[in-house]
Amino acid sequence: xxxxxxxxxxxxxxxxxxxxxxxxxxxxxxxxxxxxxxxxxxxxxxxxxxxxxxxxxxxxxxxxxxxxxxxxxxxxxxxxxxxxxxxxxxxxxxxxxxxxxxxxxxxxxxxxxxxxxxxxxxxxxxxxxxxxxxxxxxxxxxxxxxxxxxxxxxxxxxxxxxxxxxxxxxxxxxxxxxxxxxxxxxxxxxxxxxxxxxxxxxxxxxxxxxxxxxxxxxxxxxxxxxxxxxxxxxxxxxxxxxxxxxxxxxxxxxxxxxxxxxxxxxxxxxxxxxxxxxxxxxxxxxxxxxxxxxxxxxxxxxxxxxxxxxxxxxxxxxxxxxxxxxxxxxxxxxxxxxxxxxxxxxxxxxxxxxxxxxxxxxxxxxxxxxxxxxxxxxxxxxxxxxxxxxxxxxxxxxxxxxxxxxxxxxxxxxxxxxxxxxxxxxxxxxxxxxxxxxxxxxxxxxxxxxxxxxxxxxxxxxxxxxxxxxxxxxxxxxxxxxxxxxxxxxxxxxxxxxxxxxxxxxxxxxxxxxxxxxxxxxxxxxxxxxxxxxxxxxxxxxxxxxxxxxxxxxxxxxxxxxxxxxxxxxxxxxxxxxxxxxxxxxxxxxxxxxxxxxxxxxxxxxxxxxxxxxxxxxxxxxxxxxxxxxxxxxxxxxxxxxxxxxxxxxxxxxxxxxxxxxxxxxxxxxxxxxxxxxxxxxxxxxxxxxxxxxxxxxxxxxxxxxxxxxxxxxxxxxxxxxxxxxxxxxxxxxxxxxxxxxxxxxxxxxxxxxxxxxxxxxxxxxxxxxxxxxxxxxxxxxxxxxxxxxxxxxxxxxxxxxxxxxxxxxxxxxxxxxxxx
Length: 821
Prior knowledge:
Layout: H1 8-25, H2 30-52, H3 59-84, H4 90-112, H5 115-127, H6 137-143, H7 153-172, H8 176-189, E1 197-201, H9 208-217, H10 219-224, E2 229-235, H11 240-252, E3 281-288, H12 291-297, E4 304-310, E5 321-324, H13 330-342, H14 353-362, H15 367-377, H16 382-393, H17 403-410, H18 419-427, E6 437-438, H19 439-449, H20 454-466, E7 471-474, E8 488-491, H21 494-504, E9 514-516, H22 526-530, E10 540-545, E11 563-568, E12 572-574, E13 587-592, E14 598-601, E15 614-618, E16 620-621, E17 637-641, H23 646-649, H24 654-657, E18 663-667, E19 687-691, E20 711-715, E21 735-737, E22 759-761, E23 783-785, H25 788-800, E24 806-808
Parallel strand pairs: 1-4, 1-5, 2-3, 3-4, 9-10, 10-11, 11-13, 12-14, 13-15, 14-16, 15-17, 17-18, 18-19, 19-20, 20-21, 21-22, 22-23, 23-24
Antiparallel strand pairs: 6-8, 7-8
Helix pairs in contact: 1-2, 1-3, 2-4, 3-4, 8-9, 13-15, 14-16, 18-20
């Protein structure tokens, strides 16, 4: 995953210095320079927090921050020209003054728009997963037509998840060992220049990452390191070269714009380096599995410290001092378990106290086991508790060398799940460790192989979340009716992912329902090669690998495979030849985790995928689509994320290639300028979602031909200035999202012709100052979400023509208070 190293903070600092000089020397530029200086001084703490927070950004958010960085670069160049200009050159000073005024306006527009606040919220949510709250989840459930009201079970379920997260993580889970651990680790980090590498170790699920995040957020620690703290998740199968380069850029401030520290080369393996940091720096390396990996990520630089979080206790030759995390004491374990099982911190009156104590004792003080097992026993009859206790008692004690026994203990947590819920939990092991899984991916997959719809899928995810088997992470803006599930993701603790893998591997290799690679490897597992003579019976095949050429694959048969997940990290990738023989394949997911977009080879195999119904491509250079390569006659859903699409889509005949396409989604396809007009001839299309495509300038004139279109999302496309008149001919349209399209100047004049339109989301459309007269004809319209200025206009329409309309000015769904935490 790429990291935001654009370091706009340094640019802003230098720009402020230059502008101060400009204010003193040139009267003509002083008003604009002074205003710009004040604006940047207000913004600077936020920019610096992004730089020094250690937040690792996805590629999805990187381009947005880069745009702002480019504006600051322009300001820096301009101020240098002003300083270099003679004070007697009045004409040139006048020109520079005008440019300064233009720059000030650019920055003001960028800042005053709430887009950047949304981006900052995204940075927050990507890193601090535990802070994600499902405050408006009921809206999504309603969108899936669950048939429940705002007072139904959905609201109760969501509030229960939220309360459990907050109460357990913030109070109960903090035993004496955790408090003591925080104190001791802080003592190692603060004022101890002799300790450059400090460790936190303990069994999986003991709370190591929780403790590390508390250290990371601690005010005293942040003050000592002047907010120069970086949190990096390493995982069991990291791409070491990419990770090392990204980490080194964070430390040194190297940046392609040329600002920050000099271009210092990355040092060799674990050596003393003759370069000194100007400020203290702390790097937290979470989830480190091997000593060889750790040695690549430790830099011996004066002023630099590393906090290593691992299941292993590494030797003193590498770690100067370690803290071994203690498990919960008896009373602490009981409080945590009771809260998970009963929703309170002590025994209920009707509970079998002796039986509860026995179950808690078998969890051996391990927080994750207490939470997961407790949640799995919630509301179960006593006979179920006795059975669980018997199973727990047959396992050996949990210790560093017996983590497999932890998995055996936690296996009972899946027994209370429904059959489909258990299968869905096991499916989650198909995805790479420590990666967020977009709910859209799961929907596309489970609709095909589990025969369940979106409503039931989300209900299953709620169930898994309530039992602490997954964590649901929601974008701060998500949750409204018809919102894209791309804004909601699933994460898993690595022990719980291990549990799903453990349960999936009971049968022999060729007979397993899921053929999975537990971690990223450079080639296919040797065990697969030894068993390739027989067909593999797997329904799901997941491959996590580096670069693959044609000769790197070997023959394998998957006669029953319905889902293929390909994760890789390279600039080129040869699609596996055995796909041609996957006659039952219904869902294909191809994700490039490398830095740059990848070129796919062997795309001719698509011609053999006659049953393919769902296609997900991420960070791919879309190949040219033509009749011979991509005749996907049964394809219903296509999602393109972070793809380069211009060449691939150019000249595409959509109705010929995808005659049954019902959902088409493009997210962060930054080179998209316009949609192919042929997409308007796909009669089956019901949902069109174009989000975060900043270069999109116009929609097809023939858009009105999509008579079956029900959902149109054109979200965060600032280059779009107007809608084609044909949009008013979308007779089936029920939901329109144009939020954060800051370039839009007005709604279509004949919007009143959208007789089935039920909801409009038009937040942050700052240039829309009036409403067309036809809005009063929107008889089906029930909800409008907009800013305060536009809400006044809609309320007039509500009073005059649409009494059932609800105009909602959303509460701020992001907060910048976390910058001071």
